[in-house]
Amino acid sequence: MAIPIINNWRSYFDSLHEGMGSSYERIILNRLILSLHRKEQFESALESPCFGFTGITGINLVALAQSGCDIYLEDHSAERISLIRKTWLELGQFAHLRLNDNYRKLDYPDKSIDFGFNFSALWFVDDLPDFLGELCRVIKKDILLCVPNKSGIGFKGQLKGYSPELYPELKLQHIDTQSIVYLMKKNGWSLVKSDYIDCPPWPDIGMSKEDYLARLLGKKVLQNSIPEREDNHSKALSILPYYRGEDPDFEKRMLRFYPFEMLAPHFVKRFWAHHYYMLFKP
Question: pLDDT tens across 42-100, in order?
Fold first, then answer.
């Protein structure tokens, strides 16, 4: 099973190699979140659950922390929380980390956090109405929810090997966009914007994006996008050096693939984009 990373999430903390797909995804997600921050001037943000799709868990809001925002992260694994804390410390950043076994309750006062965020992780909450009700209670300004694009050509392939019996923790019914909009409206929140996001020039497939791009664009373009790792000269790609100020060209390299996302018509994104986002306001 390819998504979410139930079986291999530890490997990303070990190798620190996320690959082209996750690296591009992080930059595009950063651009969206930081654009909201510039408009709303968030002072605090909550990501719950923070274990969602792929790559290194718990670093989706590092750019927001670097902009001066107070970050709260929740996960249902004590082991992951320990590794997330270690990663943030290595980046010179701090986040409030909390264990939440089922996400039925969020232990924060009413309207105490400006921004609520979730990236392809709603299928981990035990009860979607309970979770969204709590999120709406806690958040004051904006809630950004991202789900996998179920219309995408790669979605069914990513679920290869899935069954409710094998993966009882994964509740696919929780990523239905109509259900999410309905529940948010019941809680007094309106959908103000929605669109496809994370639409690079490669499909949402289980194979290495580096291999796919090498075939599609040629090795030269690919080599310009992925730096050599000094320890063993193998190809490694991660946003962590960029966050540490050691790879200032990282965003520029990833944005070489952005014109496709920017110019692709809506009907193309419907079948090609990897994710879909919904922005809500009270």
Answer: 999 999 999 987 789 999 999 999 999 999 999 999 999 999 999 999 999 999 999 99
Query: Token pair for residue 45?
Result: 């943000």
What is the bridge-based pairing of β-strands 139-148 and 190-197? unpaired
Nearest to 31 by CA among 282, 262, 274: 262
- The number of angstroms, rounded, from the C-alpha of 230 to the middle of its chain's C-alpha atoms is 28
CATH fold of the domain at 9-281: Rossmann fold (3.40.50)
d(CA 273, CA 282): 28
> 224: exposed, middle or buried (C-beta count within 10 Å: 0-12, 13-18, 19+)?
exposed
Please state the pTM of the whole predicted model: 0.91
